[in-house]
Amino acid sequence: MDTGSTSRTAVRRTLGPAIGPTVSAAVGTSVGAAIGSAVVDTGSTSRTAVRGTLSTPVGAAVVDTRSAVRTAVRRTFVLVRVVLGVGHRSSCGRAVQQGFRYAEARSP
User: Fold this and answer.
1) Which of 4, 8, 58, 97 could, after both became Cys, cross-link 85 (CB 3.0–4.6 A)?
2) CA separation for the pair 87, 22 (Å, rounded)
3) Would the pLDDT of 79 be above 50?
4) According to the 3-state scheme, what is the secondary structure of 49-67?
5) Would you call 25 exposed, middle or buried from its count of C-beta atoms within 10 A (0-12, 13-18, 19+)?
């Protein structure tokens, strides 16, 4: 038992410190720095490309679409209010409103 534990300890002492930190430090420094800079460079390049090519047309299209949708919604609300005679001067709206009043008055 003593011989086995002694040989294991000796192997750990000789191989562990010599191989472990040297290899990990070398790999960490060279590969890590290369990968890190490549990732950062790629990210900034793609961001710049996206900003340069897509931001202006897409932004304008989104704004135009929203204003068109808002206009359509406003027109729809105005038409509904005209038909119902709510807050709008219209003979059609008044006729509908009077029709509703007549129906309510004649209901049993």
Assistant:
1) 97
2) 83
3) yes
4) HHHHHHHHHHHHHHHHHHH
5) exposed
10, 4 in Cβ contact below 8 A? Answer: no
Tell me if residue 1 falls in helix, strand or coil.
coil
Write out the two tokens for 26: 């070398």
CA distances from 10 to 1, 2, 61 (A): 14, 12, 71
Segment (H or E) for 11:
helix 2-84
Q: Which residue has the tokens 């219209």?
A: 90
Measured between alpha carbons, how far is 100 from 95 in angstroms, rounded to an integer?
Answer: 9
User: Distance (Å, rounded) from C-alpha 78 to C-alpha 80?
Assistant: 5
Q: pTM of the prediction? A: 0.21
CA triple 69-75-76, angle to 5 deg: 90
Distances in whole angstroms, Cα of residue 58 to Cα of each of 42, 54, 87: 23, 6, 38
User: Which residue type occupies 61?
Assistant: A
